[in-house]
Design goal:
Layout: H1 2-27, H2 46-53, H3 55-87, H4 91-106, H5 109-127, H6 134-159, H7 163-170, H8 175-204, H9 207-212, H10 219-229, H11 234-269
Helix pairs in contact: 1-11, 2-11, 3-6, 3-8, 4-6, 6-8, 7-8, 8-11, 10-11
Length: 270
């Protein structure tokens, strides 16, 4: 009886969470010229065609992809270096730094967004003539993506034999070459997972981007501006595409994590 109630409760929770998304996806193919979610006028791809013909949406998409790629690459490079440094610290220092690293993850996004906006405005005024835009967005996205990259790489560093790097150097391999030939292949699954996480977070971020964007628009900001000006059926199509991209990226991350866990179990069994 308890298991049945638990299953029903879980189904109701999932229904509550995902029913609006399913309605959104279904009506993104509606032929109606209004945003009606109660009248089905027939299957059509017209809103997807109009979506890719809209110049403003294409500009927002380009900005989103540029910001996501640049910020995820930089965050991955910085996060890898930071994770290696944290892993080599003493236990009490590691705990202190990890608490500082985890703080941006639990901090409300609106607080992070406002604080970054004030910081960027201060530096813009101090340097003179610089305004918020693509640069401030990239810096903001690096800031909130960095903790996730560090947390993705640290477990791989802890699983690695710490003597491998020293052995490579004892055999005459330079430090930089030792890192790329010995350390990086061991932690590359965590690096890739961290990069995908950073890319995913960057694509669908709204709150922090809204405060640090200036005149630059990303897809989430453009969707918000569309709802303020005029309710258009294109919002359904655009939101559906964004949801599908995020879903695919999260699926890739989960698949990689499950494969890594299987490999670890096989190594332990061997």
């Amino acid at each position: 009886m308890t298991k049945t109630i638990s299953k029903i409760y879980a189904c109701l929770i999932y229904l509550f969470l995902y029913a609006p998304i399913f309605v959104l996806i279904i009506f993104s193919f509606n032929d109606s010229s209004t945003m009606s979610r109660s009248v089905w006028s027939g299957f059509s791809m017209r809103w997807y065609r109009q979506l890719f013909q809209d110049r403003l949406i294409m500009e927002a998409l380009e900005n989103t992809l540029v910001i996501a790629v640049v910020s995820s690459v930089i965050a991955t490079a910085l996060g890898t270096a930071a994770a290696i440094g944290i892993n080599g610290m003493k236990q009490w220092k590691r705990r202190l730094v990890m608490n500082m690293t985890n703080f941006p993850m639990v901090n409300p996004e609106i607080v992070t967004g406002v604080s970054l906006m004030l910081l960027f405005v201060f530096f813009a005024r101090a340097m003179g003539g610089i305004s918020l835009g693509m640069g401030s967005l990239i810096l903001a996205h690096i800031t909130f993506s960095l903790p996730y990259v560090i947390l993705s790489i640290l477990p791989k560093l802890r699983q690695m034999d710490p003597h491998l790097y020293e052995a490579a150097q004892d055999l005459g391999c330079p430090p930089v070459s030792s890192f790329f030939r010995v350390v990086l292949p061991e932690i590359i699954p965590g690096v890739v997972t961290g990069m995908i996480m950073a890319f995913t977070l960057s694509i669908d971020d709204f709150v922090i981007s809204y405060f640090t964007s200036g005149t630059t628009q990303t897809l989430p900001i453009y969707i918000y501006s569309m709802t303020r000006k005029r309710i258009s059926p294109e919002i359904n199509a655009l939101s559906t595409l964004l949801f599908r991209v995020i879903l695919v990226l999260l699926a890739v991350v989960n698949i990689r994590q499950s494969r890594d866990q299987k490999k670890e179990l096989e190594r332990e069994g061997a």
